[in-house]
């Protein structure tokens, strides 16, 4: 059900029956290493290409989420998935393996919440009993496609981010117990004219601001409603920029309750410059770390704002700036007194 | 509302308030030339790259559809769009121009019906009052990205298809008069192991069969229910294959009521080998030609089955076969006695 211009409120509060997070070797050694369901010591995952390794990550995330939900893939009505690869081959080939009816999405790093938002809508509107929302990325595959050959060893500025090797998936259903999806806000493109692909945090921060502002306005909520507002993946640079933009635009989210997935995943490791990025960043941090802490009672309600930089190497080479977007999903712990 | 495993039936029957089709110079000279709202004599559309020309096609389709619906873009709640370009830049840059909250999709040539199906679901579930579903392609942009440089003049086998230069858009709303979206079936990946990107009709035909079979089973409809079953874009080769597969699988659609968008758009022109393809093929043929004829009373109900070959140049180079999908949407003329 629509509320305001671009927000959906889900009266049935679809249930997140399970989530799974898979991580690569570098992610496993980071501060959130314990939060992954599976981690890999081999960046190739035993495959002969990075693209095939990325597919294994996504398939493992889907399989693990299904296993944790106690569901067979035949019981899941739709898979909603997307990734950074050209023609989202990671998702489409995983959809082939799974055999689940498939809705392909592209929102770059915002795909994690684009898929969760649409999946919750399908469940809420009784268009599906169970859906699987999934996304992932692989550092090697992303570097090869978007940037220079890694063998070239090109240096990067401190505003650059490190694409996460990892994947996350969530099973959403119309019954059962678990965290619940309360609402979702679909973003619009915000493009402030920035064109530096090594500073995507700065490019994406205004898109996150737009969606956060819209969410609170559409929902008519006080700015301190959520225990945590999480962006992903602005990194240190984008987190700082958004921390300054929010009060300037009178969005008075307590700044000690505002965190970013790109800052969290690698902690203070200076080798990743501004922090993590990629579809796997917000997916693994949300599905592995944040929702686990919510289940443990640390937070009651959070707003996850996944940002995406919708550029391509061609659009950059042709002198275009970076169109950015952010999609937000509100997740709340089940209240026994309401259940 | 879900019916069967993978079909949505829309009780409110969302209204297709308007459609628009834009064509390139070659398409304008074809047998459906008169059905386009706008045609261009210049393949570059006055732009300095094919990618930018493709964006103009999509933006024109969206603008024209909005104009014909008598709506301002501010009244449209969501744009659902996708295309063949890496990272669907055509759609994302058009979403920037339009400023409408944006749901990015990827289903290759199936995107036309993926976007219409999801758009109708948003309207039916009261998650939107008006949506815009749009997709397009450009021959030059697709050749450059998927195949050889056109200057190379490489020859193609007779099973190859010609990517359509064109775009189509539809405005769907919860009130007003027009054709109505009755139901939609979301496909699953079908991959018969074919890997020849110059014979995508053969690769995609089994995916179309799967979705058509599922649609009739989920809907419990007799096989002669529709006045027309339309695939897009199997071309002559794929149309012939599916015409043989359907009776073999006891799907007794009268074969004189089965046509293909890839066959229609260029007629018998032998220079396009097996026929048209690309996101713009099914979009322009459906939104320009077929729905126009429905409005004129030629057909009362049609099923449009948009097929997509979800390969990428990388997946092909790495020896993978072609995962295919088809999404179907049932469109019916308004019956005054029911209205």
Concise description?
Two copies of one chain form a homodimer. By secondary structure, chain A is α/β, with parallel strands linked by helices. Chain A contains ten helices and 15 strands.
Parts with pLDDT < 50 across at least 5 consecutive residues of chain A: none
Structural class category of chain A: alpha/beta
- Average predicted local confidence, pLDDT of chain A: 95
**What Rg of chain A do the Cα atoms give?**
18 Å
The share of residues in extended strands of chain A comes to 15-25%
Count up the domains of chain A: 2
Rough shape of chain A? globular
Q: Which CATH class of the largest domain in chain A?
A: Alpha Beta
Q: Report how far the terminal alpha carbons of chain A are from each other.
A: 20 Å
* Topology, number of strands of chain A: 15
| CATH-defined topology of the largest domain in chain A | Peroxisomal Thiolase, Chain A, domain 1
GO molecular function, one term (chains A, B): acyltransferase activity
Protein name (chains A, B): Stage V sporulation protein AD
Describe this structure in words.
The structure is a homodimer of 339-residue chains. Chain A is an alpha/beta fold. Chain A has two domains: 2-173, Peroxisomal Thiolase, Chain A, domain 1; 179-332, Peroxisomal Thiolase, Chain A, domain 1, CATH 3.40.47. In chain A, 34% of the residues lie in helices and 23% in strands. Chain A has ten helices and 15 strands. Chain A has helices at 25-28, 50-69, 89-98, 111-124, 139-146, 200-219, 235-248, 261-264, 279-295, 313-317; strands spanning 2-3, 7-9, 15-23, 38-39, 78-83, 102-104, 130-137, 162-163, 166-173, 179-185, 228-232, 258-260, 276-277, 301-309, 324-332. In chain A, the strands form two sheets. In chain A, strands 1, 2, 3, 4, 5, 6, 7, 9, 10, 11, 12, 14 and 15 form a 13-stranded mixed sheet that branches. In chain A, strands 8-13 form a two-stranded parallel ribbon. In chain A, helix 1 links the parallel strand 3 (15-23) and strand 4. In chain A, helix 2 packs across helix 3 (89-98). The longest helix of chain A is centred in the N-terminal third of the chain and has 20 residues, at 50-69. Chain A starts with a strand and ends in a 7-residue tail after the last strand. The mean pLDDT of chain A is 95. Chains A and B meet through helix 3, strand 6, helix 4 and helix 10 of A and helix 3, strand 6, helix 4 and helix 10 of B.
């Amino acid at each position: 059900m629509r509320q305001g211009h671009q927000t959906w409120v889900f009266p049935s509060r679809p249930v997140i029956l399970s989530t799974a997070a898979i991580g690569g070797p570098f992610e496993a050694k980071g501060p959130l290493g314990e939060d992954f369901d599976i981690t890999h010591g081999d960046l190739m995952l035993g495959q002969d290409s990075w693209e095939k390794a990325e597919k294994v990550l996504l398939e493992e995330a889907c399989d693990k989420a299904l296993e944790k939900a106690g569901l067979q893939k035949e019981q899941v009505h739709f898979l909603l998935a997307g990734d950074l690869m050209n023609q989202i081959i990671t998702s489409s080939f995983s959809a082939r393996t799974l055999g689940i009816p498939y809705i392909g999405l592209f929102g770059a790093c915002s795909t994690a919440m684009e898929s969760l938002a649409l999946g919750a809508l399908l469940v809420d509107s009784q268009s599906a009993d169970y859906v699987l929302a999934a996304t992932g990325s692989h550092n090697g595959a992303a570097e090869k496609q978007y940037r220079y050959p890694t063998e070239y060893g090109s240096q990067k500025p401190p505003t650059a981010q490190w694409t996460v090797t990892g994947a996350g998936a969530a099973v959403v259903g119309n019954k059962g117990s678990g965290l619940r999806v309360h609402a979702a806000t679909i973003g619009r493109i915000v493009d402030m004219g920035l064109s530096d692909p090594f500073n995507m945090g700065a490019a994406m921060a205004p898109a996150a601001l737009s969606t956060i502002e819209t969410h609170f306005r559409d929902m008519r909520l006080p700015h301190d409603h959520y225990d945590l507002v999480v962006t992903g993946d602005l990194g240190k640079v984008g987190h700082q920029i958004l921390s300054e933009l929010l009060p300037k635009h009178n969005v008075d989210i307590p700044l000690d309750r505002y965190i970013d997935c790109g800052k969290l995943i690698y902690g203070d490791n200076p080798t990743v410059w501004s922090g993590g990025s990629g579809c796997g960043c917000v997916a693994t941090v949300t599905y592995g770390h944040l929702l686990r802490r919510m289940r443990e009672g640390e937070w009651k309600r959070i707003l996850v704002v996944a940002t995406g930089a919708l550029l391509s190497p061609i659009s950059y080479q042709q002198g275009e700036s970076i169109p950015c977007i952010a999609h937000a999903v509100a997740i709340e712990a089940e209240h026994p007194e309401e259940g």
